[in-house]
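Weekly sync, protein design subgroup
Attendees: M.S., D.O., the rotation student, P.L. (late)

Item 1: inverse folding check
M.S. brought a backbone from last month's batch and wanted to see whether the design step gives back something sensible before we order anything. D.O. pointed out we never logged the input encoding, so this time it goes straight into the notes. Structure tokens as presented (138 positions):
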């Protein structure tokens, strides 16, 4: 179920950009409470814009992954467990991103944020497992 190399590397680049901007935003968010916090807050806002743009690209690529990779892999009974875990992390990220953007509840927002951060770090780590298992199966 190997992806076309240009698509695969573009996907890896977009996911790396999402991971890097998400992690950098976490750092900026912590730094905004110290001296020069306005600078960190402005940098964090810019990072969130890049993160959101990369997320839109990732969603488009996810749409292409369904017929090119996910559906074919499922039918061939290849890498189903790790693929399902990957899909669960991605679905969690999509739902929590929607919640972060549209939720007006200050009670729910910290929970949604924590779930989004956890799923983002988990996906970043687990993609290596999914790719490794897929390569071994070949």
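Designed sequence read out in the meeting:
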């Amino acid at each position: 179920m190997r992806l076309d190399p240009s698509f695969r590397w573009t996907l890896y680049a977009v996911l790396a950009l999402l991971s890097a901007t998400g992690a950098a935003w976490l750092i900026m968010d912590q730094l905004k409470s110290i001296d020069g916090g306005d600078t960190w807050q402005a940098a964090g806002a810019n990072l969130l814009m890049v993160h959101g743009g990369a997320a839109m690209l990732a969603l488009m690529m996810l749409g292409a992954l369904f017929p090119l990779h996910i559906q074919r892999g499922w039918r061939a009974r290849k890498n189903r467990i790790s693929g399902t875990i990957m899909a669960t992390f991605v679905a969690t990220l999509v739902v929590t991103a929607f919640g972060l953007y549209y939720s007006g509840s200050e009670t729910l927002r910290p929970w949604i944020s924590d779930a989004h951060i956890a799923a983002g770090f988990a996906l970043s780590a687990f993609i290596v497992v999914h790719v490794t298992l897929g390569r071994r199966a070949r």
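Discussion: The chain is about 85% helix and 0% strand. The helical segments are 5-31, 37-75, 80-102, 109-137.
Action: P.L. to compare against the previous round before Friday.
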